[in-house]
Design brief:
alpha+beta; Butyryl-CoA Dehydrogenase, subunit A, domain 3; five-stranded antiparallel beta sheet; 4 helices; 14% strand; elongated; Claudin_CS
Length: 161
């Protein structure tokens, strides 16, 4: 196996795992939009754990979601998938560290939101995608890239033998 590909895969996987950990508690998974209003006095934003509002003076008021069973299905699924990705990512990093052969240190080496947003007759608050989702998407891309590098590294090793 090529040790450089293994180290790059480890770094990409680790960076993806860290970004998933940053995205999980981020408050801005979706934020209220300002389109169609002249004066915005408050902004509403949500994540997987709470809904918050902030006014123009900078005061934040947050309310945690009261019950797991009362949540929408996409929030329950998102919570489960994010926590699963962090747990499995930790196992993956440990497995990668154990499996790296030549790179020892001594050798140098959400659908309903968009539907409501574009519906001109929707009476509620319209939300835009927040920074938490972008961080989560970046972590997914990095994790997939790291896994692809590991897969290619294993494939190259079998072809050499």
């Amino acid at each position: 196996m090529d040790p450089i590909v293994e180290v790059v895969a480890l770094l990409l996987g680790f960076l993806g795992w860290v970004l998933a950990g940053v995205a999980l508690p981020n408050r801005y998974w979706k934020t209220s939009t300002v389109s169609g209003t002249v004066i915005t006095t408050s902004t509403i934003y949500e994540n997987l754990w709470m809904s918050c509002a902030s006014d123009s003076t900078g005061v934040h008021d947050c309310r945690e979601f009261p019950s797991l069973l009362a949540l929408n299905g996409y929030i329950q699924a998102s919570r489960a998938l994010m926590i699963t990705s962090i747990v499995l990512g930790a196992f993956g990093i440990v497995a990668t560290l154990v499996g790296i052969q030549d790179a020892s240190p001594g050798r140098g080496g959400s659908c309903s939101s968009s539907r409501d947003f574009f519906n001109p007759m929707f009476p509620g608050i319209k939300y835009e995608i927040g920074e938490g989702l972008y961080i989560g998407w970046c972590s997914a891309v990095l994790a997939i890239a790291g896994g692809s590098c590991l897969t290619c590294s294993c494939r190259l090793a079998t072809e050499e033998k």
